[in-house]
């Protein structure tokens, strides 16, 4: 049992659970945190049926007459969900370490967001969705300054909102193509031939440029993004695509401190391949306008690389005149313990474009001045985002600051990762490669079938997890996930592993 | 003056304006309509400055430090906007015949939508945005049935929501590619080679399929959609694209009744070209998986074609085994006097896929059973739409039914188009080709420069219009636009034209 074998953690774990139910003796929860938690979080999982329960199954059948339901896990009662706990339609209450594919920043029904909804001054923002590109609301510049620009990555003062992650990356790619062509022209005035041919899908108006991406990456599912996505076949099968270069992403060996030489070599190999591909694609007549990369490949299996790797990649871009696009759709918003994962690289000029969505509630991207298109209507669509989502984001950022949530994430992430290390030592036949930054953690399971069995068993015991890659489990709790939540999870996870052994 | 030259309309126009201010004597406004109008609409334009006024100019400068503002018209006070009237930050109140690029269905701050916001049962839907594909809310099947399925096109019982118009079309294209490949295989099981090659952007996993589109079309700006968009160079310039076939769209001559033979010939020519392109692209090894078409090319210049044309196009798809995708992003939602523009074709089986967004408030598409992908995660993303938008849509549909808005649109559209015919007769050197269905109307101006001058002058007199194509003006009022609004506009338009002459 977990409490017997993890001697160092025994007391912590038991204490914390006790502390939770008897807050007076609590060592791990600050007073501030306790206050918020007591306000709107539940005190633990509570299971009434196996999941999906009968009501979820009934609804899945009903929805199956309307759309493909192959991916539906269960149906939710969002009204009853609170904080870190998702409640389903069969009355099961589960600790949520997946948070709607990493897209709920501060838990369910956070009081600050509910309050915002009842402010009559905000009604009009919800009811009248503007075409932001032509008719923005009066408070739009202030709202952008207050929300997105307050977390702008180093060196970036420009931001464009979009409706979702895919649209953000699509438009970021377009900005890189436009920037590259203007650079090539030496000015921003297209020729008549450029204009004439672009309308009929021909060069030179539609040039044969490319974006370099990495094996295992995920950048979205619309056709431009999909050409740079290489995590799973099912995403791409049967869809026409572009002949764009794909570089290997480092496959690090763990524990990192034991394999530093091997890992450095592996990263060098990948970087050399990047440069080779840039040269090769230029020779093929399809120059690389930009490189797109995730700071941690998420969907592809939580693949990390060192700050050195990313710094070198940034330099390769400078050397070859490509734009550098860091896709923080999954890593952004505080989950790694810093607001942006690229902050861990420790550089002043991390990227030319940084895209976001998910936890930021609105999609979009930051960019350096020179990446902003020179003319109107080059980057454009009807809505260009949604001010109602900016409103929520501004409040989420207030909560993050007020409750020091980045520190909390660092603390609870440490508890989570240390717990995973210990379980991995104990169940070495099942678990390996525990890794993470903040609460953005993952662990590998011996095989795909066991991974899926663990996910279901853990869920039936009241914890929601997600898979990624071939056989990894990814942890994506909200930013209000505390140390004691980590211990609730670790206890349950231990039970599942013990029964599996 | 307008009232002198349009003898038949004089009384109507003057009466209606009078009737508006003195509702008791009103002939044109039904009691139901009056009630709603009195509740939340204004009684006419009111201009204080030229547009953009000083405050708008100041804010444009401020926003210019954050993003490209080349397309910004002016800044809005959405709180003060009501019904058909958009109020700007300088206190100007304008009759809005453009409605945020045709995306406001029932006017600004409609009481029914405001009421929905204050219902505490709805709060959770706004605050907790789910990953709909995996964890839908309990009421999701019912909400889809109540809203989108209640307006499903003939022959379609399946619907997939998406965040915006571009994402809707991108995923509709993917569904057509998947359907086409499975048809070609004779089953839905990909080979190992299909799976292996798809991840690295190679055939056969990523096949060389194509979508046939029309010159002048607009289907969105993400890279798949953009490959089928051919309305303006600025949308496509410098962005890599696919070698997909582009057919001519009929260029009808007006008045239609005088050119019936010529127009029928023109449509035949285009249809022949469609068939030739399908054969040619099959021979090139890039078979046409689907054809995408707008019922009225909107952004491209409000280009209409006859019901016969679309029926023949549908038959060509059947004959050649291509899917038929009708893009109703701009035409859908009631603005043509029917809920879908394709209903004017009078066929039971109008399409395989119908996409929507804008006035429907959520993006998405309806599809026939056989177009639904066979497996989970083939059509997928984090949010898959937004239940908060479905909530608004359900209420919009209630209002449309309760207030018989489709009949109103037919009536006010007739007043608008008849007024345009008369003005066109009077100002034949400036205006031509007045055309429309419902309030989805347009008119051509002698040249681009005059068009833009008219747009600005009309705006300074309190009416917002939009341009489309090379030199057209498009009319896109909300569904609550009444006959007397048409006359307010016609009066002002006449003044502008008279001064221009």
Q: What does this 3D model show about the protein?
A:
The structure is a homodimer of 501-residue chains. By secondary structure, chain A is of the alpha/beta class. The first copy, chain A, folds into two domains: 54-115 and 404-498, Aspartate Aminotransferase, domain 1 (Alpha-Beta Complex); 129-402, 3-Layer(aba) Sandwich (Aspartate Aminotransferase, domain 2). The first copy, chain A, is 42% helix and 12% strand. Chain A has helices at residues 2-5, 7-21, 31-40, 54-64, 99-102, 111-118, 123-127, 140-146, 165-185, 192-199, 223-226, 233-236, 260-283, 307-320, 387-402, 405-426, 448-460, 483-500; strands spanning 85-87, 93-96, 158-162, 210-214, 246-247, 288-293, 323-327, 353-356, 363-367, 431-437, 440-445, 463-464, 466-468, 472-475. A seven-stranded mixed sheet of chain A has the order 3-9-8-7-6-4-5, with helices on both faces. In chain A, strands 10-11-14-13 form a four-stranded antiparallel sheet. In chain A, a hairpin with a 5-residue loop joins strand 1 and strand 2. In chain A, helix 2 crosses helix 18 (483-500), helix 8 packs parallel to helix 15 and helix 13 (260-283) runs parallel beside helix 14 (307-320). Residues 1-38 of chain A have low confidence and may be disordered. At the A-B interface, helix 4, helix 6, helix 7, helix 8 and strand 3 of A face helix 4, helix 6, helix 7, helix 8 and strand 3 of B.
